Amino acid sequence: MERIICIIIGYVMGLFQTGYLYGKLNHIDIRQHGSGNAGTTNITRTLGKKAGIITYIGDTLKSVVSAVIIHLLFGKGNSDIEFLLVIYGGLGVVLGHNFPFYLKFKGGKGIAATSGVALSLLPYNWVFPVFGFLTFTLGSLITKYVSMGSLIFVTSFLIEIIIFGQLDYFGLSTNALYEAYAIVFAITLLAYIRHIANIKRLLNGTERKIGQKKTEI
């Protein structure tokens, strides 16, 4: 039951679409501009860096707030699986962010929300948010593609979880540990699914590079 509640908590938090709400304050529906996505990259390209930063922070904090709520509700009685419950909450946030029911399930791609999941795991190990930031930043700068940096980040996050899980950093039972792996794999898979169009453009050489004008593609 705790797992279901945590997914619901995360989903509700994920419904706060920072990019969509910021766009509305500027009298536009961000989903009708650029790529049609309600996430950080599209709002940055449409409304500028300030809008992008605000969107990224807002979407990241959704996962952190979800983790805090889960800790307050279940931390004392379920300390042995709190890490797992936070991961479930993270999955809920990504689902709410990607598929908000009130926007006809048309939201973002979940990268900022996933980085928030990594940030919420700071109490367990500082490596998750720090390495997450590095893999996304370096991946994007080296490849010149934000989409590539995003995929490198989520893939690395999954690998980190497995490595530290095998090193027994989370104090989970074997079954709970593999359950955590499955949830993070689902989050990673969602990122790849939401980036299918980007992956196709990367393969045929039409994906937009960082700093590249739309007319240059």
Automatic annotation (TrEMBL):
Name the pathway it acts in.
Lipid metabolism; phospholipid metabolism
Q: Where are the transmembrane segments?
A: 5-23, 53-74, 81-103, 123-143, 150-170, 176-193
**A single Gene Ontology molecular function, please?**
acyl-phosphate glycerol-3-phosphate acyltransferase activity
Q: What catalytic activity does the UniProt entry give for this protein? A: an acyl phosphate + sn-glycerol 3-phosphate = a 1-acyl-sn-glycero-3-phosphate + phosphate
| Keywords, comma-separated and alphabetical | Acyltransferase, Cell membrane, Lipid biosynthesis, Lipid metabolism, Membrane, Phospholipid biosynthesis, Phospholipid metabolism, Transferase, Transmembrane, Transmembrane helix
State its role.
Catalyzes the transfer of an acyl group from acyl-phosphate (acyl-PO(4)) to glycerol-3-phosphate (G3P) to form lysophosphatidic acid (LPA). This enzyme utilizes acyl-phosphate as fatty acyl donor, but not acyl-CoA or acyl-ACP.
What name does the UniProt record give this protein? Glycerol-3-phosphate acyltransferase
